[in-house]
Specification:
Helices cover about 45% and strands about 15% of the residues. By secondary structure, it is of the alpha/beta class. It has a single domain, classed as Rossmann fold (3-Layer(aba) Sandwich), CATH 3.40.50. A seven-stranded parallel beta sheet has the order 3-2-1-4-5-6-7, with helices on both faces. Strand 4, helix 4 and strand 5 form a beta-alpha-beta unit. The model has no long low-confidence stretch (mean pLDDT about 95).
Length: about 270
């Protein structure tokens, strides 16, 4: 089916690795012009080389998305390279660690909210005037933990629940010019899990098990119907759909890509 994304300008935050990287590649394969913001300079370079080797169009911008100044600077550069226009914003940047409520300090809470939620607020605020002028779509990457929180990681779950509230409110405020939707991935095997200090390592510390064994144990506790962790491309496919003309009547929706982890009806 024709997505209608060819020639459109798509900005992805936190796109050097994982779900953001997969989304950037998928958009480029649809013929979109892609700009990716991330603090990971090496990852940005690798991504740019891969997309360009495939004949795609991509701009990469190093930006610290945990600060207001970093978000503003990164988006300013991306917009300049896009000629002042943008059609799609994918808010994807985020991080987290597995730790119990008692172990999460005020500093931890603020750090999590600042990156996982406020970066979305700031990026959206910066691009809304452009999106309002030409119409477009915003896709926010949330989490299954926003809808079905587990005991850990509680700060991460709360930050992603805030993303869903933001999505719903913006969808009503900006319709019909801008469609705003969210994807809520379940456990996806990305550097978010595998990097030093990531979910796998900190989950191992929490469960007092080796990282891989701890992840398998956690999936059993969650009774995940698909049993396995998902792949980044499986989430990217849904992100591209929500940004495309194929989803022209879809707004204020939360699309689970979670292997069946969420059991509720909503």
């Amino acid at each position: 089916m024709e997505t209608g994304l060819k020639g459109r300008r798509v900005l992805v935050t936190g796109g050097a690795t994982g779900i953001g990287e997969a989304a950037a590649i998928a958009f480029a394969r649809e013929g979109a012009h892609v700009a990716v913001l991330d603090i990971n300079e090496d990852g940005l370079g690798d991504l740019a080389a891969r997309v360009r080797d495939e004949g795609g169009s991509i701009e990469v911008v190093k930006a610290d998305l945990s600060t207001d100044a970093g978000v503003q600077a990164g988006i300013s550069v991306a917009l300049e390279r896009f000629g002042g226009t943008c059609n799609v914003l994918v808010n994807n940047v985020g991080s987290g660690a597995v730790r119990s409520f008692d172990d999460v300090t005020d500093e931890d809470w603020l750090k999590t909210i600042n990156l996982n939620f406020m970066s979305y607020v700031r990026a959206t605020r910066a691009l809304l005037p452009v999106l309002r002028a030409g119409g477009g779509a915003i896709i926010n990457v949330a989490s299954d933990l926003a809808r079905q929180p587990e005991p850990v990681p509680i700060d991460y779950s709360a930050s992603k629940a805030a993303v869903l509230a933001l999505t719903k409110g913006l969808a009503r405020a900006e319709a019909p010019k801008i469609r705003v939707n969210a994807v809520a991935p379940g456990p996806i095997w990305t550097p978010f899990w595998t990097k030093p200090g990531g979910f796998a390592e900190t989950m191992g510390q929490h469960h007092k098990m080796p990282p891989q064994e701890a992840v398998e144990h956690e999936m059993k506790l969650r009774q995940l119907p698909m049993v396995r962790l998902g792949e980044p491309q499986e989430v990217a496919n849904v992100i591209v759909f929500l940004a495309s003309d194929l989803a022209s009547y879809v707004t204020s929706a939360v699309w689970g890509v979670d292997g069946g982890s969420v059991r509720s009806l909503t």
